[in-house]
Amino acid sequence: MKKHAIIPIFIPHLGCPHDCIFCNQKKITARQAPVTGEDVTRTIDTWLTTLGDVETVEIAFYGGSFTAIPIEEQRQYLAIAKGYKDAGKVDKIHLSTRPDYISREILDQLAEFGTDTIELGVQSLDDEVLRRSGRGHDAAVVYRSAEMIKDYGFELGIQLMIGLPGDTMETCIYSAKETVKIGPEIARLYPTVVIQETALYDMWKAGTYVPLSEEEAVARTRAMYEILTDAGINIIRVGLKSSDLIHEGGDIGGSFHPAFRQLVEGDIARDRIDRQLGFVPGGKVDILANSRSFSNMIGNGGRNKKFFLDKYPHLSILYKVDNTLQDGEYVVRSKGEKL
Prior knowledge:
The structure is a single chain. By secondary structure, the protein is an alpha/beta fold. The chain folds into 2 domains: 2-258, Alpha-Beta Barrel (TIM Barrel); 265-338, Ribonuclease E, catalytic domain (Hypothetical Protein Ychn, Chain: A), CATH 3.40.1260. It is built from 13 helices and 13 strands. The protein has helices at residues 25-30, 37-51, 71-86, 104-112, 127-132, 139-152, 169-182, 199-206, 214-230, 242-248, 260-277, 294-298, 303-311, and strands at residues 2-10, 54-62, 92-97, 117-123, 155-162, 186-191, 193-194, 234-238, 253-254, 283-289, 315-321, 331-334, 337-338. The strands form 3 sheets. The chain has a 7-stranded parallel beta sheet with strand order 1-2-3-4-5-6-8. Strands 11-10-12-13 form a 4-stranded mixed beta sheet. A two-stranded antiparallel sheet has the order 7-9. Strand 3, helix 4 (104-112) and strand 4 form a beta-alpha-beta unit. The chain is globular, with a radius of gyration of 22 Å.
């Protein structure tokens, strides 16, 4: 049985007064018909007929700053979701919003309609990065909103972007460490992707903004990933999905890769294995991981296998599955011995 499924409901950016430099949703929204209650119901019903047996099903409102849309529309969408939850057809209600659209009144309403998870699009906890990105608020708002969300007992999520104007490895690490202090249950890490009809796109065309290279994006994201996971925070997404780009208007520039998470986790796997291989004098070697981590052991496109082949030509390496190992655990065995 599949453990978890999300029914995504994409809500336009109605009501959001801000012009973040990476966002084109106002222009997309202006060309779209409003999302009606009937649209929401139809989407949920369609997904429910295709999911099969799933342990946990969530209705998730994405694509906009949910708590910034008109209050009547919020209530309409939430009432529909709550109806499915009350009927036992879904288990959780999940939404994303801005840190500066959280208040006691808003949280009271979300609690009334059975909301479970609130993700904050934080992007950065560095004030200069927020200012240069046109976010319209400072980092202090994030801390206050996160504390209120936790006080109400909601599951808290934090979304961070990597590579915005003014961002550096140091500000990325700072944002990750501050996120640990905030203490969310879940997090998402998104390397910045330049899309059409945004101020960031204009900056890129003018040469005043240079997107991160894939190598730089992996290095920064990896540093943040390890800080968050070491603190026990569940990172539920690394990098955009291709379907996200459809809603955002297409990939133009930046570090988009359809398997970006595997690039990051494969980079971590390579170093963990490399440290063990350095103690092997020669001969036959087995490298083991469980079935969930096997692809990271190999690396995206086999890049880790090539790395080890080039660096250790004196070793004969076999890659094997050992499901007694934990996720992200890699073991090197030489002559049957665990090193």
